[in-house]
Specification:
The structure is a homodimer of 334-residue chains. By secondary structure, chain A is α+β, with helices and mostly antiparallel strands. Helix content of chain A is 29%, strand content 25%. A seven-stranded mixed sheet of chain A has the order 9-11-8-12-10-13-14. In chain A, strands 2-7-5-6 form a four-stranded mixed sheet. The first copy, chain A, has a two-stranded antiparallel sheet with strand order 3-4. The first copy, chain A, starts with 7 loop residues before the first helix and ends in a 13-residue tail after the last strand. The model of chain A has no long low-confidence stretch (mean pLDDT 91). At the A-B interface, α1, β1, β2, α2 and β5 of A face α1, β1, β2, α2 and β5 of B.
Chain lengths: 334, 334
């Protein structure tokens, strides 16, 4: 508890453990950090991470906190300028464990070329937290002229996913319980900034991007369809899911399209640019695929069933509504 | 737990409870929110709030989260452009309680003229959190030419506090335990943006600003002295502390200068501008006072005792080093 009080112990924790691992931020101990933006249009995104356990196959909460918030910016086509990092530590967390997480944050930041420039540390009593919660918030700059948002989707647009689905949820689950999986499934945790920047550089007219985190493809499609006031039609057999993920989901009664991912996104662009977009995306994930299209636009008083704006054509050709689950199939995956 | 999963329950929680209370943020459901900055120099600050209890005399965690992060920006002389708000909710928190906190966030934002434009909600199992933790992160713009930082302090500068000290820590403590105080002490929780903007407008050449949160005046002075490589000399009898705060601290064995505040700041400016600065500050808090001065600058190999760069001249004229406590006297006050 002493490390959370703003006294000598906290100063030592921050100056000896956190700052050296994150680089040379001169401003990091000051209340607010200063930075310059090269352009006036900013993007801003926040996420708190409560993933359990802190380390899972293919990643950990530190890397997740960096990629997660940078991915949110990338979904607006924004390049990150700076990150903040705020730790809520439960009393009793091993300093060594914290050090590993901070190492991971630093490594992820260096990989992207972004810095944590401001931070905060709080400590709560044993039993009032769960090891470690992290908030990371990102500022980015938007340097393209596009309107990348659900409001830009148009009937006929192609719906693409950037890789195979369902890995992250299963990886976290397998870290919690002995699932007896024959081959361990690693999280798909990845930074989506570079593929997005490449899509923009290649001239793909991006209409909408969405990372497929909590609620997976099902939740993201539903949200975009509602905001964009269009239906979305997905085709089951085009949705890439690794056989081992599929098998595990079947046994566990989970639905891969509603499973969380941390390195996959939905890309909606004009149908005529599918080839170009897939060429770019497959450099990062060979499984990237067109999985459906934007259907009709609904008007006020429309006869469309707007309770279920997303439909899934099954492998047998049956058209089923995608019913959004009440919550995530697996809690605390991010 | 269902409300944390990214499914229908979460969408309902956010669209029905959170968004209406915070205004008309069209972007709030999208991954990243967009905004424009009127200038290229930005300030960025983050804080997680774990105050216990959530409601205390004179404030609550919602108002604290808004003022706390805006105050951090104000300490760089920055005007807030936007806030993010991230909630970590413990399963079982009353929806009504959450609604009151969000109301308070909305009210505080409207008072300042700033908006929450992006957010996040996570839910953790009962016993893995403590009701509610909030992270708020703020982006601001710096529109003055000053270097407001410890590196700008100079020997002879005046050290001012903007009001009486110690209220917040005691208010939180009294909300936890029946202290039997004759008159209830309210937190000093307040937004410091306006007084800072007024100081700048009045032409006060601000060298350093620091809000006196965790660790209070003692911790803030110590940090500034170390960063600014100068000693600081405080005079006990000039430090404003309300008699009831003083009395309570004496009984409880607490030190008012190390107590947390949430609406008080240290202002360091040229000695010849003390009158001007106090005229501005006393419009907000009549107790604002000059409490000391910046002493000598220390050089490498200096004979100064840099273990204790801050000294306090007691009411009897004795010069004592200010020894920074290991931690906060009262945990979880913010």
């Amino acid at each position: 508890m002493g490390h959370g009080g703003g006294g000598r112990l906290m100063r030592e924790l921050i100056t000896e453990l956190v700052v050296p691992k994150l680089g040379h931020q001169k401003n990091v101990l000051h209340d607010a950090a200063l930075l310059y933006t090269p352009g006036p249009q900013l993007a801003f995104s926040t996420d708190s991470y409560v993933v359990r356990p802190l380390f899972f196959p293919g990643g950990d909460i530190g890397r997740l906190a960096v990629y997660g918030s940078v991915n949110d910016l990338a979904m607006a086509g924004a390049r990150p300028l700076a990150l903040s990092l705020s730790l809520i530590i439960e009393e009793g967390l091993e300093v060594d464990c914290l050090a590993r997480v901070i190492d991971s944050v630093g490594e992820a930041c260096r990989g992207i070329g972004v810095e944590v420039i401001t931070g905060d540390t709080k400590v709560v009593e044993r039993g009032k937290g769960d090891g470690l919660f992290i908030n990371s918030t990102a500022i980015g700059v938007v340097e393209h002229p596009l309107n990348i948002s659900p409001s830009a989707i148009r009937p006929g647009d192609a719906v693409i996913v950037s890789g195979d689905l369902g890995r992250h949820g299963l990886a976290v689950l397998s870290a919690r319980a002995e699932l007896g999986l024959r081959s361990p499934i690693e999280s798909d945790l990845a930074c989506l900034l570079e593929p997005v920047m490449e899509l923009l550089a290649a001239g793909v007219e991006l209409h909408c991007l969405r990372d497929l985190t909590r609620g997976g493809l099902a939740s993201a499609s539903d949200e975009i369809a509602r905001s964009g006031q269009c239906t979305l039609q997905l085709e089951q057999q085009r949705i890439p899911v690794h056989p081992s993920v599929n098998a595990a989901c079947e046994v566990l009664g989970l639905d891969p399209i509603a499973m969380a991912n941390e390195g996959r996104m939905l890309v909606i662009c004009p149908a005529e640019q599918v080839g170009l977009a897939l060429t770019v995306l497959r450099r990062y994930q060979p499984e990237a695929a067109r999985v459906g299209k934007v259907g009709e636009r609904w008007a006020d008083g429309s006869s469309l069933d707007v309770r279920y704006p997303v439909s899934l054509i099954s492998e047998l050709g049956v058209n089923c509504p995608v019913v959004l689950a009440e919550g995530e199939q697996i809690p605390r995956i991010c």
